Amino acid sequence: MPREKMSSAHTVISANVPKDRIITQFPEPYCPGASPYNKINFHPKVKAACAENRTGRVGLKICKAVIVGDVSVGKTCLVNRFCNDVFNRDYKATIGVDFEVEKFQVLSIPFTLQIWDTAGQERFKCIAASYYRGANIVIVAFDLSDEQSLHNAPKWMMEASENADSPIKFLVGMKRDLLSEAAYTEIETRAMAVASTLGAEYWPTSSKTGQYVQEFFFRAVAMVFDTNLIRELDASTVPAKQIGSGMIQVQRENSQLYEKKKKSQCCK
């Protein structure tokens, strides 16, 4: 299905947004068959609202993504490859929680993503769990070369999703560069099956080479932007009518009471 391209007249680059953080087209999933989300384009209501600059508070809000998974699967490497375009295999284990803030421009609307990188050690779970609250995106990371980390993925997804805000879910395989094509094909089949049971979209990545890192994050940002803006647009229309109807009803009741009171006073 061909994608619609935005006219350059509608693409105004904000001075605070790097050129490599601009999203004008809806990114595709890694594999349509490995995603519970059928989004292939921005919703027509979203595109219309952006074109008319009717995005309400969406452009002002900070979207929250949390990355969870076993220790040493490569969570920090993934964040640093995307945010800073660097790779260092000697990162020290994350203590508690760390985060990065990335500014985007989606359909000419500013949008901010806060990426929370959580510790995988058991002793830090009580600390990290409090940071899951209100997350819009939950990313469960596992090491493609360590099948045990894939087996632990459901536990991480359950713990992170319990306190999240109806999150968009992803299962992300790390260290793709360490596997041969044959070895990867074998683990990919099992990873996709796990992603399906979790209701998550699957992506393989390599922080060392950068393979699929930007594509994955762009997909996540576009999906949460589209979802949040639809929610905002729906909230700004339906409740407003209900509130208005209620006010009219109250005004009518007050008017009727006033008329009865007025007649009652006239008869005295």
Commentary on this structure:
- The chain is α/β, with parallel strands linked by helices and 268 residues long.
- Helices cover 40% and strands 18% of the residues.
- The protein contains seven helices and seven strands, in the order E-H-E-H-E-E-H-E-H-H-E-H-E-H.
- The protein has helices at 44-51, 75-84, 125-128, 147-151, 153-161, 181-198, 213-266; strands at 22-23, 62-69, 97-106, 109-118, 137-143, 168-174, 201-204.
- It has a seven-stranded mixed beta sheet, sandwiched between helices.
- Strand 3 and strand 4 (109-118) form a beta hairpin.
- The longest helix has 54 residues, at 213-266.
- The protein is globular and about 50 Å long.
- The chain starts with 21 loop residues before the first strand and ends with a helix.
- The model is unreliable at 1-11 and 239-253 (pLDDT under 50).
What is the makeup of the main sheet?
7 strands, mixed
Decide which structural class fits the backbone: alpha/beta
Output the helix-strand order: EHEHEEHEHHEHEH
| Beta-strand content bin | 15-25%
Biggest sheet strand line-up: 1-3-4-2-5-6-7
Separation of termini?
78 Å
Number of strands: 7
Task: Point out poorly predicted stretches.
Answer: 1-11, 239-253
Give the fraction of residues assigned to helices.
40-55%
